[in-house]
Amino acid sequence: MLKTLFFILGTGFLLTALSILSISEAAVIAVDYGTNWFKVGLVKPGIPLDIVLNRDSKRKTPSVITIRGEERIYGTDAVNLGARFPFNTYFSLKQIIGRLADDKYVQAYQSIFPNKIIPDPLRGTVLFQHNETTVFSIEELLAMQLSYARELAEATAHESIKDVVITVPPYYNQFERQAILDAANIAGLHVLSLINDETAVGLNYAITHFSSFTEEPQYHIFYDMGAGSTKASLISFKTVEIKDVGRFNKTVINMDVISIGYDKTLGGQEIDIRLRSYLAEQFDKTYEGKLKESIFKSPRAMTRLLKEANRVKQILSANTETVASLESLHEERDFRLTITRSELEAMIVDLVERVNGPIQDVLNNAKMTLPNVNSCVLVGGGVRVPVIQSKIKEIVGEDKIAQNVNGDEAAVLGAAFRGAGLSRQFKVKEIKIKDIASYPIKVDYESELKESEDGTMKNKIFRTILFDEYTSVGTRKIMSFKRTSDFNFSINYGNLNENILNDFGSTEIATAKVTGLSDIVKEHNDNGIEQPKVKVTLQLSDSGIVSVIDAIATIEHQTISDKIKTFFGVNNKSDEALKEVPFSDEEPAPSDNTSQSIPGENNTLTNDTEQIQKKTESIPLNLEVEYVGITPMGINEKDAAIRRLRAMDETDQRRRAREEVRNNLETFVYNMQDFLSDQIVIKVSTDKQRKELATKSSETSEWLYGEGEDASIESLRARLHDLRSLEKPIVYRRDEHTRRPEAVDTIKSAINNTREFVEKIKANTTIERYHTDEELDKLLNVCNKAEKWLDEKLIEQDKIEPHADPVLTTADIEKLLREIEREFIIVATKRPPKKKVTPPVTNDSENTNNVNNTDSDPKSTTTHVEETPAKHDEL
Asked: Of the ranges 475-489, 807-821, 837-851, which one carries the lowest mean pLDDT score?
């Protein structure tokens, strides 16, 4: 404030402009949640799309959570606690979310980690028995990590965040995807969309290579070996011209996912597990006959070994040899072993042979060969293992390996870009994405009861593929029937090959019950209706979730007058017949299951009635959908989980608040010795004041590490308040003593500059003056008054001791300075009066003649302004 006298006009304008431009818009985050790590992307107005740093200033966070009592620990701290509290630390939840507790993947998980798993009594899904009285659903544990991811983003964005895009493997089915959505809902997040991992990577590739695409399609394989699985997607990119604003066109990128391949158990963690087993065997062999029990029976030791195996693997990716070393690993015995890269490669020979599987699958499914592929983009930590990378190069050719993508962060950045587009709050480069579903979905439904040859009433079961494999997500399909009675149908995964079925789990998705149709038929039975047409709409969402939208009955009937007109030959022009398709997202067309025409009793009117303008009425039917297989979390379950997480959040907030106060108190006590020994502090305080503060500080230090170890936040705040109340007067006098000379120089400079400004105006004789003497004198009087006051206060200040409260404060100087500024602005911003302009005298007759000759004037021209499209800043 003290230095703004001659800059206040410009600064004020800048602040005004910024306030106008600061429009409140919500931020969006993306979470790339992996088996071992998760990354958070943030897009917000004013902040470039980037990765959110965690509290260790790292760009990725371990996907681990430890719960001790009411405290939750995340990330690296949780990993470190895992060895001490293996039963209360939860690793690699991504591998078993959305699965039944007796699933083979859950059994495999239990062979790696010691957590106790029990089945949910209602859903059969995974529950973790945390202790004797507490269980956590897997959705709750994932929700805690998603909530933590949001906290990190909010600390960067400085605002609350709701919208999120989450990456998932392309092989996730309905149940796994729904579990992710349930977890996000518990965390208080609104999922804009789930996005397949490689689709997100491909989107990031499209952003960073936007200018390299042409009308000729490019085909790229995105190969992603993560910790838990390996996926590959074949994606095409090309440019297309579409209509833009006005008469202009614009170029956009078409990004089409053509096919996918995967291996659910081929990943970096499998390498870690094999290396851990080898290390454990070597430990038992080293101490053979000296151990009470095998190291394999110690959850703590095996957890430590798994962490060490991962470290060794990373080192061997860059070196040919390293040492595994752990102190007091098991039964107070140390372990040290040299391992070579060749030894590690010998452990994973069969895994290396499986590397080709996902690549071959995407090519076979797309009916393409490698020569048609432009490049293979490698993603994920698993591809850094030299033998894995060499195998991929051998398969696709080294010249096709792309090195121009950030394999660690491409997915989360692509997902964040997707979130920016879906939020509709950002102008982004237009990339049209066509993503696909991984599995075909079928519908089973029953036909109307009909009399069979043996005289009994029977119906038929129809099974029809509703969404084919590789159907585009975001698609709607319509089932059409001609029925007169209520009916049921079921939605299931269908046509799955044996390899997929072996580890797929439940194939049943939902059953639906459509009612109200029988009542409609009965109600309109006397109105001459034809057999009602029923349309049931189903949707495969952008997140890959299939749902039933609605069921509508359409009836056509004639009034009595219509029939009379027809009988007498008065034919109405009919509407064009509505074509229907049993399963269509386009204009319906005739289907195989549509009932055939049956001759009616009134054959004489058949030809005439076909041309009658029929009245159509659409009536919504009752629709009850029950999810089967692995059901989503119920409303009551979800509400209970939300309440529990909120309670834990509040406990965390109270604990963090207490830790913050305690840290502030510790810092205060620690810094007190330096504060009291400062020469300026000694000058502006008395011996008694310093002694009192030193004594109080020493007492607080002893209390803090004794009785105050578990003190409440109120007690800690009271202690800190008492200390600060003693320190505050000293700090005030120190600051005044330090800042006063600069403040005095500033106001003196302002007074002198203002006087010079007035003198220049008064001395100006060449330009017409527009400032009055009264205005200039008023400004000088303010300066004179300020100068007199300052001189008097300086004399008074010199008479008192430095440890006394000052009589000349910087606050008083600033107040006086603002008075000078105010009067200065009035004078400096005064505008000169406008000069009177006398219009030239013109000849009226000449003007009249000129008006009529305008069109024939050879100098008259028409200017054409070329229209150009508006430009926008883009992400």
From this structure: 837-851
Give alpha helix (H) positions in 460-579.
498-502, 517-523, 560-567
Q: Are residues 581 and 467 in the same domain?
A: yes
Is residue 599, in this structure, part of any structural domain at all? Answer: no
- Determine how β-strand 71-74 pairs with β-strand 89-90: unpaired
Q: What is the pLDDT of residues 349-394, one digit of tens each?
A: 999 999 999 999 999 999 999 999 999 999 999 999 999 999 999 9
For strands 61-62 and 37-44, give the pairing: antiparallel
**pLDDT (tens digit, 9 = 90+) per residue, 622-657?**
999 999 989 999 999 999 999 999 999 999 999 999
Look at residue 755 and tell me whether its pLDDT is greater than 70: yes
* Nearest-10 Cα torsion for 380, 384, 387, 390: 80
Q: Model confidence over 158-196: pLDDT tens digits?
A: 999 999 999 999 999 999 999 999 999 999 999 999 999
For tokens 């049931």, the residue is: 536
Segments forming the whole domain that contains residue 306: 268-353
Pairing of strands 375-379, 218-225: parallel
**Which position has the token pair 């030791």?**
301
pLDDT tops 60 at residue 667: yes
- Please tell me the distance from the alpha carbon of residue 106 to that of residue 95, in angstroms, as a whole number: 8
Query: Strands, E, within 733-789: which ranges?
Result: none
Strand partners, 128: 117, 136
Residues 6+ positions from 128 with CB-CB distance below 8 Å: 90, 115, 116, 117, 118, 135, 136, 137, 138, 141
Residue located via tokens 């054959």: 603
User: C-alpha distances in angstroms, 609 versus 553, 602, 604?
Assistant: 22, 10, 9
Q: What is the pLDDT of residues 848-862, one digit of tens each?
A: 444 444 444 444 433
Residues 780 and 713 in one domain: yes
In a domain, 284, yes or no: yes
Distance of alpha carbon 826 from alpha carbon 777, whole angstroms: 13
The owner of tokens 């064009």 is 576
Number of neighbouring beta carbons within 10 Å of residue 187: 25
Residue 279 is part of a domain; what is its CATH number? 3.90.640.10
Q: What is the model's pLDDT at position 583? A: 39
**Do residues 617 and 644 both lie within one domain?**
no
Q: Distance between CA atoms of 790 and 792, rounded to whole angstroms?
A: 5
> In 561-605, where do the E strands start and end?
none
Q: Is the same domain home to 51 and 197? A: yes
Residue 626 sits in the same domain as residue 681: no
Q: Looking at the domain assignment, is residue 434 inside a domain?
A: no
Structural domain count of the chain: 4
- Residues 588, 681, single domain; the answer is no
Say if residue 415 is in the same domain as residue 510. no
Segment 205-238, tens digit of pLDDT:
999 998 899 999 999 999 999 999 999 999 999 9
User: Closest Cα partner for 231 from 266, 205, 258, 270?
Assistant: 266
Query: Of 394, 427, 460, which closes a domain?
Result: 427
Asked which of 427, 455, 481 is the last residue of a domain, the reply is: 427
DSSP state of 531: P
Q: How many CA atoms lie within 13 A of 690 on its CB side?
A: 16
> Which CATH number goes with the domain that contains 420?
3.30.420.40
CB 459 within 8 A of CB 483: no
Contact 571, 612 (CB under 8 A): yes
- Is residue 39 domain-resident? yes
CA angle centred on 797, ends 794 and 799, rounded to 5°:
115
How far the first Cα of the chain sits from its last, in Å, is 37
Q: Do 617 and 510 belong together in one domain?
A: yes
